[in-house]
Design brief:
Blueprint: H1 4-23, H2 28-48, H3 60-63, H4 65-88, H5 90-97, H6 107-128
Helix pairs in contact: 1-2, 1-6, 2-4, 2-6, 4-6
């Protein structure tokens, strides 16, 4: 299990980015949430299976562990971002197929909702998914 300190730090950064996203809604905040999620997942993977301290004394499996941790963390960050965008897009899709009023004029609502969903899904993956 990753140390709670990593989970709390990444959660605080995601919360700050969400608050900043509600203040000035731009899709670039989604990219920032994804990058924070990637960093958090790499830190989590390094705490679960740490890379060797001395690379010259490492076996072949231990030597490739750092690259595997970075790749795994980046893919988990992209996966969390994709899941958050899909969840946040449900209201937009629902307005196309259900007889409810369109949300097109609520841009100041949809973008912060996407930022919040991406931040939450990235934090959940950092906290619970290995």
């Amino acid at each position: 299990m990753p140390p709670p300190k990593i989970i709390m730090i990444i959660g605080g950064l995601q919360l700050a980015m969400t608050a900043f996203g509600f203040q000035s809604p731009q899709m670039s905040k989604v990219i920032a949430c994804m990058l924070i999620g990637m960093v958090g997942n790499v830190m989590k993977q390094n705490s679960i299976s740490p890379p060797p301290r001395d690379a010259s004394m490492a076996t072949d499996e231990e030597a490739g562990r750092a690259g595997a941790n970075v790749t795994r963390g980046a893919l988990l960050g992209v996966m969390g971002t994709f899941a958050g965008i899909c969840i946040a897009s449900i209201p937009e899709v629902a307005t196309k197929y259900l007889p409810i009023p369109p949300l097109g004029e609520l841009t100041n609502f949809l973008v912060p909702m996407k930022i919040a969903c991406v931040a939450l899904s990235n934090w959940l993956i950092t906290a619970f998914y290995y």
